[in-house]
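Late entry, written up from scratch paper. The run itself happened at the end of the previous shift, but nothing got recorded in the book at the time, so transcribing now.
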Amino acid sequence: MDTDLLTTAEAAAHITRARQFLSAGAAAIRSWANRGYLARAGLTETGRPLYRLADVARAEAVTRSRALRLVGIREKAPLGASISHPAQRTSQSGTTTQDPSLGK
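Output as recorded:
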């Protein structure tokens, strides 16, 4: 069976799923922006908000981890999660200090 070919009904179902997915994604973005998880980076010529990809990814990660926590699923910490901010370093004694290379 060739998976690149769709019947009319299959194509319509595919488009319906794609529209649902995209509209749900747009609703999530608006929700994150309204709740303060996502800052607007600017506006298009027509006045629509613009967001940075990194900010969108960060908002998704924050809301995903919160949702998992609420249902009792513990998410694995990403590599390097022990450093709270890239400008901070944790010494062997466990104290956090400012990264000296930041001012350069």
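Helices lie at 8-35, 53-70.
(Scratch paper discarded after transcription.)
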